[in-house]
Amino acid sequence: MAKPSLTRAVEVFVHGFCFGRSIKHPYEAQKIAELWVLRDAPGAKNPRKTEVIAHGIVPWRVLTKISELVPEWHFVCHMYGPEESGEQIRAGYKAAGYRAIATEWTFGHDLEGIPEVASDPPVRRVLDPADAGRIAKAAGGRQIRDEDLLAEQPKQRLYTVMDSCTTFGWVSSIPIGDAAWVANLFVDKRHRGRGFGRALMSKLLLDDRQNELAASYLMASSAGRRLYPHLGYEQIGAMQIFCPAKRPEKTL
Description:
There is one protein chain. By secondary structure, the protein is of the alpha+beta class. The chain is 27% helix and 32% strand. It has two domains: 6-110 and 237-244, 3-Layer(aba) Sandwich (Trna Endonuclease, Chain: A, domain 1), CATH 3.40.1350; 123-213, Gcn5-related N-acetyltransferase (GNAT) (Aminopeptidase), CATH 3.40.630.30. It has helices spanning 6-21, 59-69, 86-95, 129-139, 196-210, 222-227; strands at residues 27-32, 35-40, 50-55, 74-80, 98-109, 124-125, 157-162, 167-176, 179-187, 215-220, 234-244. It is globular.
């Protein structure tokens, strides 16, 4: 089986992230030169920020393209591999008046050696609109479209740990070609330390493999960075997020 690659991770991230955001309003990805530009489709009542995804391109060239193509407020998400210097990337954006917001880590899994992790209550795939509604209430927004709950070939699979009273956590798998994007792993902070996160991910990965996918990709926070290697994920890169130090002045 092919080893997960950062180039493939970028594509899966772009399309998986846009799919998840499109549950609320269509969020579109456009490839412009070496960049991906992600923004709300026309008609959004409260447009979300534009995100520019860069990989394999130096900061000064990213910013040159942005000055030509992205006039609105935006974030730059610069993805890079272990052979590249995160410090040099930060310095390039800082010199142009951007500030660093956060760093996340890119992980890939070849769907081999998946540990089987049980939990009580057990993890199950969400098939009932009522359960999807409970998760939406806990999350503050829908996490899956109704048409994907029982579809023969769903564009998303949502998993949860819940009992009759409590929703402990959830996570989604979004197939993108022969790979999957992991979206929105969440465990209620009142119930962390009980293995729910590992159990959710184990079930998701086993089902990805059963559905004949070749790889799974995700972005991890500092906390998640410690979890995912225990599930067989390999860190294949990182992503630094930047924004302009000053917002542009609004014109009347």
